[in-house]
Batch of 2 targets.
Target 1
Amino acid sequence: MDESVFNPDRPFSVGVELEIRLLDKESLRPKNISPYIFAHLPDELDYHVHKELLQSMVEIVTPVCDSAEEAVDFVENTLKSVAKIAKEKDAVLASLATHPFETKEDNEIFHDPRYEAFAEELQIVLHNFLISGLHIHIGMPDSEAAIRAYNATIKYMPIFLALSANSPFALGEDTGLASYRTEIFQQLPRAGIPQRFESYAEYCELIDQLKVTKTIETIKDVWWDVRIHQVFGTIELRISDAFYDYDRLRLMVLFFQALLIYTTRHPVNKEFYQISKQNKWNAIRHSLDGNFIDEDRVSSIRETAKDLVKKIAAEKIFAELHCENDVEPLLVLLDQEPISEKLRKIYQKSGDFKEVIRSEIIS
């Protein structure tokens, strides 16, 4: 398929991809059993549970859904099926963007030509790539809407990083960050904050250069925090930490879906790259309590997000999505403490990283 041609999906449809860790139920260290999981999946889930770099990880991939609720229902039901298979190998599932005390020696890489090529190219960067993420796809009606939504996502993606940030611990210590996973991920050569594009043609020009120079084979080899997926016809938000809490995930996906509808109607102004970088750092370090710079104004990421929710609600977009009753729960969620702080308090009280992990086990 020609990836320079935008392939529209159902406007503002939803897809979710969630990476989940497989852990020994006693030691809570990684358990490299994903080949066993794949060998015992029911046929209807073959397409929806994917392998990842590590054999201690699987990825849940929803079909194209009409709503956040439908997508997260699918994730929940699929996790139950995978957890049942994992139990046969004395393993549990956990939503950890970083594991508090695992090492690279605990893990085995999945034997796949693509992953082995990455390992050869990236060397120590990939050896320490012990992280899990969450991706959200929103269908776009056309390429012009996609560019508007893409540019807006660059500006507002610190909000979704802050809402998901749950990786304060790694290698047996408190990193001092809300999302250490993000710092690891952006070491990749084609990761991090992408540039803004003035047109879809300009976006395609860059992608074509990367292909012609054999830097990438497909758009799958571009790991930006947000990307236009031409084949799927979506905007894909890739900045978020992996986590699993049904209500938080549903509200977060709904927020992103509604935001893209809003910003295709109200394009954002161009933002300096350094501002985008600083806002992202503020989310990495402080989650929702970090500063958000908007031109010459500063407020918290939390207050910026709440203001956006109110603007979207005033445009009746939540009503269009038949989710007007979710506005208040979303505002309540934005007032809650970040996941990273909840995990930090568990460790401060117990002094045991296992208690942190147990709080994130998917039952």
Target 2
Amino acid sequence: MRRLRLLAPLLLLAAAPAAPPQAHPALWKLADADTTIWLFGSIHILPAGTRWMDPAIAHAVESSQSLTIETVLDQDNGKVAELLMGMGRSAGLPPLAQRVPPAKRAQLAALAKASGFPPAMFDGMKSWAAAIMLTGAALQQIGVDTAQSPGVEPQLTALFRAANKPVDGLETPEQQLGFFDRLPESAQRAFLLATLDNPVKARADFTKMITAWSRGDPAAIEKSFAEDPEFTPALRDLLIRQRDRNWANALARRLAQPGTVFVAVGAGHLVGPDSVQKMLAAKGLKVVRVQ
């Protein structure tokens, strides 16, 4: 489950037990004379019933003319599945079981069976793609029903579309999956192995993450990443640093257009030394925390 915090909108975060009655996540603002960009760190799957739309966030949402998220995935789920199966398959791969330590193979077999996909299918999948395919079963192990636990992005998307406001993405689905496809095999196997985390510990770890996010504590969120042994420097560079740099460039360009936009990206992208805010600061642009 530690890996789930790294996988951006597809599977960046999982759900946890009971959340606080009213969450107050952090909110930032980047602005110039005629443009306001609200910057919000999201959780992609939340405990059912989580209330996070407090007055400050509601004001930012209502004042925004458009929504920007990491990538828009709900418009053609079939296309995303085709991309995953196309980019995520390769000939000549060793069986998936041989890509994890012997002590983890029984757990892998059980998870593959629980996923409902034919076990032989996984042998032809690249390690990163197999890990994504197994994520649903891993979530079920800790009692998470993704259908009943929509995260921030689906809720925001519904609000903006209901108001006939546009929703766009910082990345296309092809670009986002491409980040995982470029990972070295060692990093891909780390992702795969992290899917086999102990469910009890995974749930406890994520409870800490939800608590930190709910009280608007970026330092605690950053600490959870720093303590994650699978979050190697190579992973940080590809999944965090490079993407945050790209997004900071996009937001800097957006300042040239008058108006107000609400931007929601995974909370892990707004903490630490490689955060979007730090990337913007390097350009001489000041991001102010408003909550």
